[in-house]
Amino acid sequence: MAQKPKVEPHVGRLGYLQALVTEFQETESQDAKEQVLANLANFAYDPSNYQYLRQLQVLDLFLDSLSEESESLVEFAIGGLCNLCADRANKEHILQVGGIPLITNCLSSPNEETVLSAVTTLMYLSSPGAGSHPELTSLPVVQCMLRFALSANSRLRNLAQIFLEDYCSPTQVAEARSWQAHSALGIPLPRTETPQQP
User: Fold this and answer.
1) What is the pLDDT of residue 193?
2) What is the 3-state secondary structure (H, E, C) of 2-23?
3) Spatial CA neighbour of 187 closest among 142, 139, 147
4) How many alpha carbons fall within 13 Å on the CB side of residue 8?
Protein backbone atom coordinates (compact mmCIF):
# COMPACT_ATOMS: atom_id res chain seq x y z
CA MET A 1 0.00 0.00 0.00
CA ALA A 2 1.29 3.44 -0.86
CA GLN A 3 2.21 5.78 1.93
CA LYS A 4 0.58 9.17 2.24
CA PRO A 5 2.56 11.81 0.36
CA LYS A 6 4.87 13.77 2.60
CA VAL A 7 3.21 17.18 2.79
CA GLU A 8 3.84 19.91 5.31
CA PRO A 9 0.62 20.82 7.19
CA HIS A 10 0.75 24.45 6.00
CA VAL A 11 0.90 23.54 2.30
CA GLY A 12 -2.88 23.17 1.92
CA ARG A 13 -5.04 21.58 -0.70
CA LEU A 14 -2.97 22.56 -3.75
CA GLY A 15 0.20 21.27 -2.12
CA TYR A 16 -1.45 17.98 -1.21
CA LEU A 17 -2.79 17.50 -4.73
CA GLN A 18 0.64 18.39 -6.16
CA ALA A 19 2.20 15.75 -3.90
CA LEU A 20 -0.27 13.16 -5.22
CA VAL A 21 0.51 14.05 -8.84
CA THR A 22 4.25 13.91 -8.16
CA GLU A 23 3.91 10.54 -6.45
CA PHE A 24 1.92 9.18 -9.39
CA GLN A 25 4.59 10.35 -11.83
CA GLU A 26 7.57 9.12 -9.81
CA THR A 27 6.46 5.84 -8.26
CA GLU A 28 7.43 2.53 -9.79
CA SER A 29 4.78 0.63 -7.82
CA GLN A 30 1.64 -0.28 -9.76
CA ASP A 31 -0.34 -0.50 -6.51
CA ALA A 32 0.79 2.99 -5.50
CA LYS A 33 -0.16 4.37 -8.93
CA GLU A 34 -3.62 2.84 -8.62
CA GLN A 35 -4.12 4.18 -5.10
CA VAL A 36 -2.97 7.69 -6.06
CA LEU A 37 -5.15 7.77 -9.17
CA ALA A 38 -8.12 6.59 -7.10
CA ASN A 39 -7.44 9.41 -4.63
CA LEU A 40 -7.22 11.98 -7.43
CA ALA A 41 -10.50 10.68 -8.88
CA ASN A 42 -12.12 11.14 -5.47
CA PHE A 43 -10.76 14.69 -5.20
CA ALA A 44 -12.24 15.34 -8.67
CA TYR A 45 -15.71 14.91 -7.14
CA ASP A 46 -15.39 18.18 -5.20
CA PRO A 47 -15.91 21.36 -7.30
CA SER A 48 -13.63 23.29 -4.96
CA ASN A 49 -10.75 21.21 -6.35
CA TYR A 50 -11.47 21.82 -10.06
CA GLN A 51 -9.19 24.83 -10.41
CA TYR A 52 -6.30 23.05 -8.69
CA LEU A 53 -6.77 19.90 -10.75
CA ARG A 54 -6.74 21.96 -13.97
CA GLN A 55 -3.65 23.82 -12.79
CA LEU A 56 -1.89 20.51 -12.08
CA GLN A 57 -3.02 19.09 -15.45
CA VAL A 58 -4.82 16.19 -13.80
CA LEU A 59 -7.37 16.10 -16.64
CA ASP A 60 -4.52 15.24 -19.02
CA LEU A 61 -3.16 12.71 -16.52
CA PHE A 62 -6.59 11.03 -16.47
CA LEU A 63 -6.84 11.10 -20.28
CA ASP A 64 -3.34 9.62 -20.62
CA SER A 65 -4.23 6.90 -18.11
CA LEU A 66 -7.15 5.75 -20.29
CA SER A 67 -4.57 4.09 -22.55
CA GLU A 68 -2.96 2.09 -19.73
CA GLU A 69 -3.08 -1.69 -19.72
CA SER A 70 -4.17 -1.81 -16.09
CA GLU A 71 -7.96 -2.05 -15.88
CA SER A 72 -7.82 -0.41 -12.45
CA LEU A 73 -5.94 2.63 -13.73
CA VAL A 74 -8.43 3.00 -16.58
CA GLU A 75 -11.37 2.63 -14.15
CA PHE A 76 -10.03 5.34 -11.83
CA ALA A 77 -9.10 7.63 -14.72
CA ILE A 78 -12.52 7.49 -16.38
CA GLY A 79 -14.14 7.88 -12.95
CA GLY A 80 -12.09 11.03 -12.39
CA LEU A 81 -13.01 12.42 -15.80
CA CYS A 82 -16.66 11.64 -15.12
CA ASN A 83 -16.44 13.61 -11.88
CA LEU A 84 -14.68 16.55 -13.56
CA CYS A 85 -16.65 16.96 -16.78
CA ALA A 86 -19.74 18.40 -15.11
CA ASP A 87 -17.70 21.64 -14.97
CA ARG A 88 -17.82 23.70 -18.19
CA ALA A 89 -14.07 24.52 -18.26
CA ASN A 90 -13.16 20.87 -17.69
CA LYS A 91 -15.66 19.73 -20.31
CA GLU A 92 -14.24 22.17 -22.86
CA HIS A 93 -10.69 21.03 -22.12
CA ILE A 94 -11.60 17.35 -22.64
CA LEU A 95 -13.31 18.19 -25.94
CA GLN A 96 -10.49 20.48 -27.16
CA VAL A 97 -7.69 17.99 -26.54
CA GLY A 98 -9.50 15.20 -28.40
CA GLY A 99 -10.55 13.14 -25.39
CA ILE A 100 -13.69 11.70 -26.96
CA PRO A 101 -12.01 8.73 -28.73
CA LEU A 102 -10.18 7.79 -25.53
CA ILE A 103 -13.48 7.85 -23.64
CA THR A 104 -15.41 5.89 -26.28
CA ASN A 105 -12.68 3.24 -26.22
CA CYS A 106 -13.68 2.63 -22.60
CA LEU A 107 -17.08 1.41 -23.81
CA SER A 108 -15.42 -1.88 -24.78
CA SER A 109 -13.87 -2.44 -21.36
CA PRO A 110 -14.68 -5.71 -19.61
CA ASN A 111 -14.92 -3.69 -16.37
CA GLU A 112 -18.52 -2.73 -15.61
CA GLU A 113 -17.64 0.40 -13.60
CA THR A 114 -15.40 1.65 -16.41
CA VAL A 115 -18.21 1.27 -18.93
CA LEU A 116 -20.77 2.96 -16.67
CA SER A 117 -18.41 5.91 -16.09
CA ALA A 118 -17.67 6.14 -19.82
CA VAL A 119 -21.37 6.29 -20.72
CA THR A 120 -22.01 8.90 -18.02
CA THR A 121 -19.00 10.94 -19.16
CA LEU A 122 -20.27 10.94 -22.75
CA MET A 123 -23.62 12.16 -21.47
CA TYR A 124 -21.98 14.99 -19.50
CA LEU A 125 -19.95 15.98 -22.56
CA SER A 126 -23.04 16.00 -24.79
CA SER A 127 -25.84 18.47 -25.12
CA PRO A 128 -29.31 16.90 -25.16
CA GLY A 129 -30.70 16.56 -28.67
CA ALA A 130 -28.41 16.69 -31.66
CA GLY A 131 -24.87 16.69 -30.27
CA SER A 132 -22.51 19.56 -30.96
CA HIS A 133 -19.67 17.04 -31.26
CA PRO A 134 -20.66 14.34 -33.77
CA GLU A 135 -18.14 11.88 -32.26
CA LEU A 136 -20.28 11.68 -29.12
CA THR A 137 -23.17 10.16 -31.05
CA SER A 138 -21.29 8.50 -33.89
CA LEU A 139 -22.74 5.36 -35.42
CA PRO A 140 -20.50 2.97 -33.41
CA VAL A 141 -21.39 4.75 -30.15
CA VAL A 142 -25.13 4.60 -30.89
CA GLN A 143 -24.82 0.92 -31.88
CA CYS A 144 -23.02 0.27 -28.63
CA MET A 145 -25.76 2.03 -26.65
CA LEU A 146 -28.41 -0.06 -28.43
CA ARG A 147 -26.53 -3.17 -27.35
CA PHE A 148 -26.17 -1.89 -23.79
CA ALA A 149 -29.91 -1.10 -23.74
CA LEU A 150 -30.49 -4.86 -23.94
CA SER A 151 -28.18 -5.65 -21.03
CA ALA A 152 -29.38 -7.65 -18.05
CA ASN A 153 -27.52 -5.10 -15.91
CA SER A 154 -30.18 -2.53 -15.02
CA ARG A 155 -27.68 0.28 -14.38
CA LEU A 156 -26.11 -0.12 -17.81
CA ARG A 157 -29.46 -0.70 -19.53
CA ASN A 158 -31.01 2.43 -17.98
CA LEU A 159 -28.01 4.66 -18.77
CA ALA A 160 -27.97 3.43 -22.36
CA GLN A 161 -31.70 4.06 -22.76
CA ILE A 162 -31.33 7.60 -21.40
CA PHE A 163 -28.41 8.21 -23.76
CA LEU A 164 -30.44 7.00 -26.75
CA GLU A 165 -33.55 8.99 -25.81
CA ASP A 166 -31.93 12.24 -24.69
CA TYR A 167 -28.71 12.54 -26.69
CA CYS A 168 -29.46 10.84 -30.01
CA SER A 169 -31.92 11.79 -32.70
CA PRO A 170 -34.53 9.23 -33.80
CA THR A 171 -32.75 9.16 -37.17
CA GLN A 172 -29.43 8.23 -35.54
CA VAL A 173 -31.06 5.42 -33.57
CA ALA A 174 -32.89 4.10 -36.65
CA GLU A 175 -29.69 4.16 -38.71
CA ALA A 176 -27.77 2.33 -35.98
CA ARG A 177 -30.53 -0.28 -35.75
CA SER A 178 -30.47 -0.86 -39.49
CA TRP A 179 -26.69 -1.30 -39.50
CA GLN A 180 -26.85 -3.67 -36.52
CA ALA A 181 -29.33 -5.86 -38.38
CA HIS A 182 -26.62 -6.47 -40.99
CA SER A 183 -23.76 -7.13 -38.60
CA ALA A 184 -22.94 -9.87 -36.13
CA LEU A 185 -20.13 -7.77 -34.64
CA GLY A 186 -20.54 -5.70 -31.55
CA ILE A 187 -18.77 -4.39 -28.53
CA PRO A 188 -18.95 -7.08 -25.85
CA LEU A 189 -20.90 -6.34 -22.71
CA PRO A 190 -18.78 -5.74 -19.62
CA ARG A 191 -18.33 -8.46 -17.05
CA THR A 192 -20.63 -8.28 -14.10
CA GLU A 193 -19.57 -9.46 -10.71
CA THR A 194 -20.76 -13.00 -10.29
CA PRO A 195 -20.76 -14.88 -7.02
CA GLN A 196 -17.80 -17.20 -6.53
CA GLN A 197 -18.75 -20.85 -6.77
CA PRO A 198 -17.47 -23.10 -3.98
Assistant:
1) 59
2) CCCCCCCCCCHHHHHHHHHHHH
3) 147
4) 2
